Request: fold
Amino acid sequence: MRRFSKIVSTTSILAVAITGLGLASTTVSAAEVSQANIEKGQAIAFSRKKGNCLACHTIKGGKLAGNIAPPLVAMQQRFPDKAKLRAQIYDSTVANPDSIMPPFGRHKVISDEEIDLVTDFIYQL
Ligand code: HEC
Reply:
C-alpha cells in the first residue's frame, strides 16, 4: 500500500512537472492539450503493463495491433463529449455490461491521472 502511494505521488509529481514544461515551452491556453500530455498518454496506452490497448484495437502509430475491437479513429466524431470517451476508458461495462474491454479505472489498472492522459491521446486520433 505504501509502495502504491509512492508510485501515485511520483506519477502526480511527474504530471505536474510535465504540465509545467508544456506551459513553459508553448503558449497553449488551459483548455488545449499539450503535445507532452498526448505523448505520455500514448505511452500508457501502448504499454503492455498499462493500457495494452493495442491487444484489441488498431491505433495510429501502434505496431502489432489487434482487430477484435473497433479501430480507434475519428474519436471526436464518435465521442463529441470528451467526458463520455473518458467514461468508456474508465469502465467499458457501463455502456456494455458484456464488454471484454477491461474496466481500467474501476479495476485501478491505470490511475485517474493516467486515464486523463490516455483520453487526451485517444481524443485527438
Ligand atoms: C481485451 C480487449 C480490449 C482492450 C485491451 C481494450 N479495449 Fe477498448 N474496446 C474493446 C471492445 C470489444 C470494444 C467495443 C465495445 C465493447 O464491446 O465494449 C471497445 C471499445 C472501445 C472504445 C469505444 C470505441 C467506439 O468507437 O465506440 C474506446 C474509445 C476504447 N475501446 C478505448 C480503449 C483504450 C483507450 C484502451 C486501452 C487503455 C482499450 N480500449 C483497451 C476491447 C478492448
